[in-house]
């Protein structure tokens, strides 16, 4: 059997350990509360929890894409999701363009001529 003094020392030691651990737990809990408050303060810079814009949507909203370009990007994205195709072929891209309603009605021209006419239209 252990002497009474040893038993008392062990109990004091255990209580000291408990106090030490409980203080550490309290400090950790306090840090968590502070960090949660910091996170909550920064939410106003976003569109809300879990509502981040895609790069395409952001570019369209910031005026880097025209409405036609954005409609095309969204149509391609929808096609890729429906058909489980990360990279559609050119034939599939043509199908997407035709599904959007585009038809060949003008005579063929060079790309540089097309780009020049587009830039002139935006200047006017």
Mean model confidence by pLDDT: 75
Number of helices: 5
In helices, the fraction of residues equals 55-70%
Fraction of residues in β-strands = under 5%
Alpha-beta content class = mainly alpha
What is the CA–CA distance across the termini? 102 Å
Sheet having the most strands: none
The number of distinct structural domains comes to 2
Extended strand count: 0
Uncertain regions: pLDDT < 50 for 5+ in a row?
A: none
Structural shape: rod-shaped
Helix and strand succession?
Answer: HHHHH
- C-alpha Rg, in Å? 33 Å
Structural account:
This protein has helices at 4-41, 55-61, 67-83, 90-99, 111-123. The longest helix has 38 residues, at 4-41. The chain is mainly α and 124 residues long. The mean pLDDT is 75. 69% of the residues lie in helices and 0% in strands.
Topology diagram in text:
Blueprint: H1 4-41, H2 55-61, H3 67-83, H4 90-99, H5 111-123
Task: Provide a compact summary of the structure.
This protein is mostly helical. The protein is 69% helix and 0% strand.
Features of this protein?
rod-shaped, 2 domains, 124 residues, single chain
């Amino acid at each position: 059997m252990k002497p009474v003094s040893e038993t008392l020392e062990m109990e004091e030691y255990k209580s000291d350990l408990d106090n030490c651990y409980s203080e550490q737990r309290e400090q950790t809990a306090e840090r968590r509360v502070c960090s949660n408050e910091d996170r909550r303060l920064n939410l106003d810079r976003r569109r809300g929890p879990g509502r981040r814009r895609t790069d395409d949507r952001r570019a369209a909203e910031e005026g880097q894409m025209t409405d036609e370009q954005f409609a095309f990007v969204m149509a391609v994205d929808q096609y890729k999701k429906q058909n489980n195709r990360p990279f559609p072929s050119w034939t599939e891209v043509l199908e997407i363009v035709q599904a959007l309603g585009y038809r060949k009605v003008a005579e063929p021209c060079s790309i540089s001529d097309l780009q020049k006419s587009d830039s002139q239209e935006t200047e006017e």
